[in-house]
## 1
Amino acid sequence: MKRLHLERLANPQLLALAAVLLINWALFPNFFRITWQDGRLFGSAIDVLNRGAPVAILAIGMTGVIATKGVDLSVGAIMAVCGAVAATMVVAGYPTPIAVTAALGVGIVCGLWNGFLVAVLDIQPIIATLVLMVAGRGIAQLITEGYIVTFNDPTLIFIGTGSLLGFPMAAVIALVLMILVTLVVKRTAIGLFIQAIGVNRSAASLAGINSRILLMLVYGLSGFCAAIAGILVAADIRGADANNSGLWLELDAILAVVIGGTSLLGGKFSIPLAVVGAIIIQAMNTGILVSGFRPEFNLIVKAGMIILILMLQSPLVGTAVGFFKRDDKRVVSK
Amino acid sequence: QDNLKGLTIGFSQIGSESGWRAAETSVTKQQAEERGIDLKFADAQQKQENQIKAIRGFIAQGVDAIIVAPVVATGWDDVLTEAKEAEIPVMLLDRGVDAPEDLYLTSVASDQVLEGRTAGDWLVKEVGDADCKIVELQGTVGSTPAINRKKGFEEAIVGHANLTIARSQTGDFTRAKGKEVMEGFIKAENGGADICAVYAHNDDMAVGAIQAIKDAGLKPGTDIKVVSIDGVPDIFAAMVAGEANATVELTPNMAGPAFDALSAFLADGTQPAKFIITESKLYTPADNPQGEYDTRKGLGY
Amino acid sequence: MADSDYVLEARGVMKIFGNHVALDNVDFGLKAGEVHALLGENGAGKSTLIKILTGAYQPDGGGIYVDGTQVSLDNPLHAQTFGIGTVYQEVNLLPNRSVAENLFLGHQPLRFGFVNFRKMEADARVILKNYDLNIDPSSELGTHSVAVQQIVAIARAVQLSGKVLILDEPTASLDRNEVERLFEVVRGLKAKGLAIIFITHFLDQVFAISDRVTVLRNGKLIETRALDALTRTDVVRLMLGKDIAFSGATDVEPGEAPNEVLVEFKGYGRKRSVLPFDLTIHKGEVVGVAGLLGSGRTEVARIMFGADPADQGTVSVNGKPSAIRKTTDAIKHGFGFCPEDRKAEGILGDLSVRENIIIALQGKLGWFKALNRDEQMEIAGRFGESMDIRAASLDMPVKLLSGGNQQKVILSRWLATDPAFLILDEPTRGIDVGAHAEIVRTINRLRDEGMAMLVISSELDEVVAYSSRIVVMRDREMVAELRGKNINPGVIVQAIANNPDEAVA
Amino acid sequence: MKRSLRPLAATAVIFIIAYAASVLQFPSMLSTRVLGNFLTDNAFLGIAAVGMTFVIISGGIDLSVGAVIGFTGVLVAVLISWLGVHPLLAFVIVLGVAALFGAAMGAAIHYLKVPSFIVTLAGMFLARGGASVITQDSVPINHEFYSAISDLMIRLPGGGRLSFIGLLMVAIFLLGALLAHRTRFGSYVYALGGNPVSALLMGVPVARTTVQIYMLSSVLAALSGIVFSLYTSAGYPLAAVGVELDAISAVVIGGTLLTGGYGFVLGTFVGVMLLGLVQTYIIFDGTLSSWWTKIVIGVLLFLFIVLQRIIFAASAPGEEKPEKA
Ligand SMILES: Nc1ncnc2c1ncn2[C@@H]1O[C@H](COP(=O)(O)OP(=O)(O)OP(=O)(O)O)[C@@H](O)[C@H]1O
Ligand SMILES: Nc1ncnc2c1ncn2[C@@H]1O[C@H](COP(=O)(O)OP(=O)(O)OP(=O)(O)O)[C@@H](O)[C@H]1O
Ligand SMILES: [Mg+2]
Ligand SMILES: [Mg+2]
């Protein structure tokens, strides 16, 4: 039992996270200082969780999509649409639950639309979701008519900035979602089927897996996750900013999934590790913020980090630390 | 001004990246409508190449005049020459260009450096001799307003050793990033206790920063002063609540003066001033923020 | 030490995958002007040895010698420069490119630095003529059947082989005529002094053409011998390390009354694919399907299984009219289907052996009745045992298994669903004698247990061995149904060849 | 017609129909001016898209294109305006830098086995970041060589102009088509996209080819950056943001499969022209708000893809085609 634990800790994602956190700590010694303030935890490390939550949530949905050998470029735009829906509805006086439900519904519909293009019309995922990536932001602006729609609805604001047991709501929601989706995927056969589709869709279909419905479902989940992220982001700033909400976050989400070890070629995937990937990215961003680098260097620092993390994960380096690898010495049947 | 009635004018707008930009678009459309102009609107989605395409398209269509809100200052010589050859007058909005002056009729713009300086001057006066650690929320890295507003502000505080910019990061002109960056600053500066003022290159980032300050248990406007630029409705709302201290107005009505200049030019060939500078007015809570809020609310911000 | 009259030689070669020793200190020498058969059960290490001899894998120990000097082959291109041409086991060509380009990739004739397409296609036409293949060299390779692709792969390797030609199961998807053609070409090359390695599971073919034979078992070299001193039984014993009783034709009691009807197809067909056919399948019978390559056998299987839905005709299962529009419909009725192209449509390469075995059963159980890991292990272990699947672990990716073992995995996948009606398209392709006999035994056993089967095979002896009835296809049409005494290779060939003008290739 | 050529024909037919429909609504769209503008205004996109076509045919993707355009523009401008380097020498330098950059990305993709999506994403951050570290301002280029090139054009009757950069793009497309369809390198690119394992076993020099592909893409992106600097007489770190997505759309609309192995360089040309047509149409219409512009572009993108699908549903690559020997 203990040994398994050690092996877990040695996986490249957690190593990378530890490395990034250490660097942050070196650059900014107060990084881990956490205080209790106004009934919640307060500190840079908590910010990482809070700010990383939207990308983590996107990454949860994105993992499924990527496992089926797809990609969803539209999540950022869907965030904008759903944030806009929720905000305009509460401003128009609808009760918060209805507004939130409607926004989630819109997210699912957007996702299913992508799924339809991919699964039924057989359009390549990148281009199928590019359609909504381009048009979605326009739709969001259409809803807000170009304004930043601000609101003062306490429930919605609580979703964005409140806290539970001292932890930021956004982080709690991301965690709950991660556990739920992971459980559903692990406890049912859905995870296996998703992998099968990603590895070889025609073989999976011949083996009796209804790949169309499953693909629709996977894209629908991605849309749903994007909707949650969109609502969170809007609730956080108490306004739906159709122009900027979720801008380029699809790239961060994809990056998180890949850092989490899921191959863009489909197949095996891990949702918790994708969430770790999102946290790594956010730890990097927060590190840049608190360390006082000049902003011109942001992108270069980020690129350097990505290269470092990927080197850590690459099979080339992997063989060097192959000692830690788990699956080699398992059951030998004969 | 009746001579503009029925004219077709092409308007190449940068995009709709901020509330201010949206307001400029809607004010321009409004102004055109008042004058009976048929306005052809082209949104460039933040890309200069799209703006050049749009201007070329307007020329091919044979419009009567063109207005452009250039995304950057450089790179307009060729396309403006083309417009000149086609004898279509061009007017520039909210930013000048690095091109020979005979290539355009007039340029209606604010002085972005002055905006920054106005904000800085206000802060210098406000803090007096007290020490003041400032944090700065920059606009998008590399964008002209970010560069100029930073420059103007630094000009204003230079020589006042008690004012220092402790931290400066980009907030991409957005609320969400403004909030996130401010959160980071607060953690980095002793829970915010060391920060005396925040200077944001636009109001949206300031609004985000105000929320971050409140979340950290501090009082924006009192514990940390908030000064920013643009004059959008929400910053006046914040002033009403005592959470923002000053903003420098950037008027969204750039098209009005441009149309006036065009009208005069078409009527009797009057050459308008090459550079029409709009006012950069400072607003503080003393300037009836509620009233300002109400007048601006409907402008499309 | 071996003398250097070997053109290509492996000395003490080791290859280890993870903790599985695929090749253990293997010596292998190839002489000019000989055909050297490399034999062994599925997973014995034949393909691995080939990949090492051609630079596709690097050995973990030992060395490769060309004409007596040690070389290190970095990649297949490097091996090509020594005049080594290879046909790897699974067709490794580019389905997206033209036939001509596949023949010449890397060696296209150039003019002024640009590829000379006219010359390339003309040359291709000439080469393909040698194999009686009359196809358009500019057509996309992927539009052709596996057999055609196999011939193109052979032609390519022959073109590249100045010194050594390596053929890893080249005949698995060829029919008799094509095999004969290939042998002619091989004999010609041998006469020219080329050294040829030939891997196959067909012992007849081994005896027809080989001079010497090397046998591998479990990654170890068993023996290299001249073939004329050996009998078939000797070879089998060497391979398996024990004797097996190769079950010949099982007697099918002719007069026996058929069991109840299980599936009945009436006027079933699909435009541009298969002409309408009638076929009734009873419980506990095996219907063999014979026919030339491209006669439409695979299409029949796919239509029956709903992989390509029929657009005419009706089907009833257990007497009830049914609709089979998608594969899941078929599976609901208890159908199973092992496709012909195992790499593209059969295995889920990156998934484990275990997952590959339970996937169809899980598909049948649905999303929410998930088998847990222990149940999966139990099922996979059971079939791993009964089908004798050689895998280092049930958790290893199935793509790392040898071809024959992959086939067993797919068969297990369907047996796990306990099907009523199993469609097998070339189930014994690329399978060693032992496993071959085992699969034939399995088919017989399943039939006796009451399962209905439709088996497509190009091996007439084999079809005869297990079929209760044989339908013959020609030119996308079912042309004959043979029963009782008529179930023998001679009659089948006659039925196939009834109209010789239409015979393909 | 050859099966593989059909998507190309489809795209061309769609373009002609769409163009005809636009002309019916706005007759002035038929002018030589508009046609000349198609070439000039899309020159940089077209050149970058040629490189992208190779990458996508090989089964990869290059997200760094837009950033490389921005970076090279800045580098060229800085070399010329600040350091007084002659433009031609500056071009040689930036093309060299880009070649190294592309080679590094290709090597990372091949040897580290990291997906191209991620490597080029890091490349994008690096190039964009590099540009803004060099300078944050837009650096104007005032050099007689530059004005000479902008004056280099063929004037057509009706006010149209065939500019140097427009013609350069056409030339690059023709060269790209030759490279893709008529050389061994081209066949290796298709081989990698078709099946990398087979390609390796057939003796394709996979490592070298991968490196060359990304080198080609970066060099063409750099050339595109040079063209962009000619187009705007300046270098700007934020130039050409998101051009990679336009390039990918153009490539895919032009009938190239993102899964690799199938595609045409000239199809990409039609794809670029189609995108240009959409933009021109929107400008001529002139009534769309910012958000409707986005929606309309999205909808048109969707329509093109679906149209292509519908026309070619019956002949998608890989589908079996009855054929008798
Ligand atoms: N890349 C690999 N990684 C791990 N194991 C491998 C790999 N390639 C082959 N093996 C294992 O090595 C052993 C030898 O495989 P090989 O393909 O050489 O067998 P073979 O004799 O060609 O069998 P067949 O007749 O079925 O083709 C098998 O057990 C196989 O599972
Ligand atoms: N020698 C050949 N030349 C050209 N085309 C061929 C040849 N053999 C088969 N084909 C084509 O390949 C396709 C494959 O047919 P199909 O798979 O149904 O045949 P089959 O009877 O199952 O043969 P196989 O034994 O290869 O499985 C058919 O469309 C056929 O026209
Ligand atoms: Mg083998
Ligand atoms: Mg077949």
Note: Chain D has a mean pLDDT of 87.
## 2
Amino acid sequence: MTDPLLAIDDLHVHFHTEEGTVEALDGVDLEVYGDEVVGVIGESGCGKTVTMLSVMGLLQSPPAEVVGGSIRYDGRDLLTCSESELNEIRGEEISMIYQDPMTSLNPVLTVGRQVSEVLLAHRDISKRDARERSVEMLDACGLADPERLMDEYPHSLSGGMRQRVMIAMALVTEPNLLIADEPTTALDVTIQAQVMEVLRELRSDHEVSIVFITHDLPLVSEIADRIAVMYAGTVAETCSVERLFDRPLHPYTRKLTESIPKLDQPATRLPSIDGTVPSLVDPPDGCRFASRCPQFIGEECRSVTPALTDVSGTGRHEVACHLYTDVSEASPPWPVDDEDRTAQQPTAETDDGGRR
Amino acid sequence: MLKYIIRRLLVMVPVVLGVTVVISTLIYLSPGNPAQIALGQNANPEAVARLEQQMGLNKPPHLRYVDWLTQALQGNLGRSLETGTPVTDLIVERLPATLELAFASLAIMLVIALPLGVVSAVRQYSWVDNASMLFAIFWLSMPSFWLALILLLLFAVHWDFFPISGRAGALLSVTALSYLVLPAIANGARRAGLLTRMMRSSMLEILNKDYIRTAKGKGIGQRSVIYSHGMRNAMIPIVTLLGLQVPSLISSSVIVEVVFAWPGMGRLLVDAVLRRDYPVVQGVTLMYAVIVIVANLLVDIAYSYLDPQISYD
Amino acid sequence: MSDLQEGRSGRPNRSDESTTQSPDEETQLPSRRRKVAGRLIRNRLALLGSGIVLALVLTALFAPYIAPYDPVEQDYAALEQPPSLEHPFGTDTLGRDVFSRVVFGAKYAVFLGLVIVGFEMLLGVTLGLVAGYYGGMVESVIMRVVDVALSIPGVVLALAIAGMLGGGLIPLVIAISLVGWRGFTRLVRGDVKGVMEEEYIDAAKGAGVSDARLIVQHILPNVASSIIVYATLTIPTVILWAAGLSFLGMGVSPPTPEWGALIANGRGEIDDAWWISTFPGLAIMVTVIGFNVLGDGLRDALDPRQSEL
Amino acid sequence: MSTQERTTDTDGERPDDPIVRVHELEKHFPIKGGILQRTVGHVRAVDGVSFDIQTGETLGLVGESGCGKSTLGRTMARLEEATSGSVEFDGRDVTTASKRELKAIRRNVQMIFQDPASSLNPRMTVSQIITEPMRSLTDWSKSKREDRLYQLIEEVGLSKAHLSRAPHEFSGGQQQRVAIARALSVNPQFVIADEPTSALDVSVQADILNLLKDLQDEYDLTYLFISHDLSVVRHISDRVMVMYLGEVAEIAPTERLFDAPKHPYTRALLSSIPRASAGAMDDRIVLEGTVPSPEDPPDGCRFHPRCQEYIGEVCERTDPEVEPVDGRADHVCACHHY
């Protein structure tokens, strides 16, 4: 296997607040390979956005502080880069689109200025060429009448259009890695479908790896090859989309997938997770899910932090849980009725199940 | 845009009318008989009565107001009880000095406050920030009339850098300028302190916006982030706040004019109030209100240029 | 175990969040009041501000015990004496002890600041609540009045009012109060509009709560902290205004040791006897700094959203 | 469990016993403009909507932002004044009720809001919040109110120890439980829930949905459940109503709406929902453009500019009536296709 494009290793981030030090990230490991879409999923406050902002060097410090770990992109450790070195990478090699398109565009600058600005900053290119290139990109993002749009201000655009502008802005320099932070959460479903369509098309046209952050499991399964499930500042499990639905190994992953109301399943009582996410100010030792875990197996869970380990023998399914000591093809302690589950959760066994 | 200005002008009309009603009511409620004041304490009662008749003082208040307003609309604000000079002439004579002082103070405010505020915000909690915030607190706590006296004492009396008081005509020479320096500082210092703090907090707020994060994420460099993306947004609330500062800028200029014997409307007003010269008080107050209203109009227009989200209709 | 839980058909009496919350965790949540106090104490400047304000109030209360001389007693044997051990701030043209006069001036500053801001609040907050809550015509009328009032620069209006009423303490209070209420009205009206957007107001309406109760129970407590902050920051402005008007001869009349009047008193002697004007001015400045930094601290602690005034 | 009702629903033989009848309801908001700031137009947030809600059922109301679903809910609770039309609750018209009548109606019609943090007054304690409707709407004695309070707090899954706390000390899920307790304190018959779970995480959402179902069974509640999330609506509703630009597009029993949607908009909406299945995206209908402004809705069928099944000029000219489809009284749709 080739080297990963992005390798986050044992990342620890703390926030210094009035209530105390919030241990927002506690040893996050994540790898993104070339031309791969990785979905990062988790509930609010689990650290998915913080992880990606650390990659971009966009964490506000103070209050945030990276206290340990490394983020290697293409051989360089981003955490030790200077601001100007980072500026050569940001926007050029790694781009990011954000959750709220209403607030992520500058209200007093025209769309054209904001899109072409990225090119002008990173390329030795004339203003006219930058404009031309920007128009092409807006067009590629499915925006009608891109020439006129260039001179519009963001406030006259709908949410869906703004998010397309954001995508155009992120991809105009043809970066290697795109980080999409809940890019459709603020949008309606029909608009979400449009934006996802644009993302899928662009992905097949440009060779770009995508990290797709979301709390919406079905949504990410439409586009991702691999999923990382985060819980309370740690990565609980990473595996392919199919495995996630067929054979989730971490008790949290299983609970999470079950608690989502599903369209293709008859309405029954929704299973929920007892308890609450532990406070990240002075969090408990051991596994952070221990207090809510239905598979709690004893003192080990409370005292030893489980490491993210490969359990498939192929490196494609990792889980951080004390249940699994056997590293080759672990099986979960709950009944896995593959046939039944597939009927409820028809997932593709083929490669194009995630993307088209 | 034109439509917008027209609408703003139309909105001004009732406000100006309201101001005239307030002033006229105040004057009406004031003790003392203007006719008596005009003729002096020892005047012949018959002459006083005749003058009262002439001035329309025996009419009911609303008719007196209508009379005054009709005259005012024709540019006639009455005559000073003290000297008999038309109030309009007095105002025209004093207005340039007042405006000159106001603009000079404004210039001092902007030149000091804007850069200081931006630097403080960009380097929050640094020594620059701490120093400029202490600087701001210091100036904004200083009574302007007292500052005026201290400046006089140090720079005019003690060191003799600047003339003590008065004004040497329009701003065309070094001499004229030297008369302006101290009053302008005395008038602008407190508001420069205020403005520094406002600029800092406005800039800080903008720097926390999502679109600033977007801009940083584009790798365009800190300079572009601050100037292209930050400054213009930060100026939008500042322009509004500047508009709100105009009345208080004028307020303090009244006192500063008295201290430096600056021949503006402020001194005219204070003298008129002390001598109960009602037509002058009425006229000058109205003029001040008009200045404030016009300033607000200008601010609104500037605002709509800065913020593309404002629609003009 | 897990299967049992899922199969559970009864009501989820066990709360999702509460079950694991141990009593220890509960006590860790500091109360709002303690948080505010904590933030105030951590802010050293605010602490300094409270110290200054406390000192001012104590000086005002115990002026007769602090001042070494009678503030109005004239001493022709000691005219215009520079600061010395005997007269720490020197004496004025009539031989009065400037230090004693400044000490007694604190009484006026505190009195004027509190009383005037009290009146302004009463008038301004009431109008702001009414305008913000009822909206429509009532609001338009009130806000047009505010527009008119705001068009006349404060000192100009106060001069006109004070001129009409003649000099003295009471006219001074009335003049400044009539000028300052409009700031409270604007602030409160805006805040009330903001609070009215909150869903708990809809919820209260849906619960059949009366208008009066809605204003007193739901709206006022939620705008109170910004009113407190604004009031604290208005006190120094009022003190400056009162001093300014007195300086112009429109406020408290000469023998009374009001700070603005004291400065006016020394104005003519600024080149021979700088101390007569300088010390009262310093007193004003320190007082104003005290209230300002206290107000800033209160704002940070109570109402971090409120922007600079 | 509501399985009993569900089976009868799908058969379309539910006894016709509406507790709420909404007839031609309109809510227009004026737009100010021009030199004199006169009213120059109207946002037609809700534009002629009629439907019934049967006693004991849950009617799900779905639509995208700006379709008027929240305004409809708020107008039904008289938090907005209706422009025209009527909302009859138990035979009484809510839109024209006097202050006193309204109090009687409000005892029976309560609302749960979207943002739990904003729907609880931060300066009140939980017990003050929950007792408030009882104080204003009932003449219950203090001890009766307290009994009810203690009963409710347990029922929604909190404890007495929570009563003296302020809302900000709770998590979002717990706050929504408090809001539910407040709504149920006066024993209402009908509850309007406006996106009650959209601000919550999925695992907490599951808890709240379960709680709402349990309480419905216990108190025979009727729900109007407003949401933009079709999966949630499917989970909780007996019938579903789809709105588009202030109008009703389709109303049908839940199973039927999801199995055999008629209106092209409903179908596009359904196909837009992400689902974790392979074939899901093959037949996805991706609508063009965005929802037009409700200030100036298109003539004819409001959906026609985006419709994938546009059939001709009739769509542009005539606004389709809401009519039964497939000969079923319980499935209505506003489309020229049928």
Note: The two ends of chain B are 7 Å apart (CA to CA).
